[in-house]
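Study this chain:
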Amino acid sequence: MSEGDSISLDGTSGEVVLGEVPLTAAAPPPEFTTVLGWADEIRRGRLGVRTNADTGPDAANARGFGAEGIGLCRTEHMFLGDDRLPIVRRMILAADPEEEGAALEELRVAQKADFVAILEAMDGLPVTVRLLDPPLHEFLPNTEDLLVKAEKEGLEAEERLLFDAALAWREVNPMLGTRGVRLGVIKPGLYAMQVRALMEAAAERAAAGGAPIVEIMIPLTVTREELALARSWVTKAVADVVGEVSDAAKGGSAGNGPRARRRRLEVSIGTMIETPRAALRADEIAEEAEFFSFGTNDLTQMTFGFSRDDVEGRLMSAYLEKGLLPHNPFETVDAGGVGELVAVGVKRGRQTRRDLKVGVCGEHGGDPDSIAVFARAGVDYVSCSPFRVPIARLAAAQAVLAADGQV
């Protein structure tokens, strides 16, 4: 063999074959569908299973696996495409409100198309859309790479602007810095644009006879006042779009107006609970939220004081080998710490709002042991990647049986 030759690997047997072997899609046996059908009957009305999906094809795939909606649609992934990233950078580099507004309008058009595809794939099922979460520096070039180029060959004019912007937005600890709702406080037009795109997509789907169910999630809130402010941006953008749709329907100027007028858009506003403070003050935050979604990845980082990117590569194996931790808390939720915060958040949130809907959208949502912890905490659903949905359906049923003392 030489570099560039193709080989094929049988993931079941471990057999390695020289060359490319024709691939076929595996079809589950009939027993697979039967068992999951039993599981769905057991957990129905007790513990739902949604998916994390950011595109129409992902959403359709997850629905095929039995997902009952989207628990987390990460809108930042829509900004990272080759056709979107330059627009985001123009928004960041804008020298005045007019330039920023023009860039946001381009992003609105692009995001609307994304949302239409997702809502169509999940028609009739809830779709939770998280507004932009990461810090803006993630959309800019790496400052070290640009610095090396600057020293070797110099930077072009646009590269110099990007370099200056990256330096301006750089933070010592960006995961605890200007991200989530904090970014919205600085750039409220960004969240308003996203909500407008989402609501226009929902109106378009409704006009086409669809049944979109939209849940708008504001990330990283830690106080009631923060959420109240962000909620005001969201409700205004929602009202603006609904008003425009209503006006078009009354005037008969839009061909699909009457149908859109007959179907009322279902919209709720909630937040992600990602910090210990948010879980502990959930009673206050619930005053402004129709739903909670626990982001257990960040909640685990902040509870342990671990940087996931750092400890998993260097520290975690030593902690597991020495028995300092029973398992990797980023794979199976820490029941005594993070799980307890989830339980406290659920209880306190429902003390304020009895009908508060609660879900989990971290990667723990597809782990059977973690699902059992969340079921005991009283969540309404878990959300996981599309291919883990069948496992989650089965684990959710087992958790319900355990809660009823049947296993």
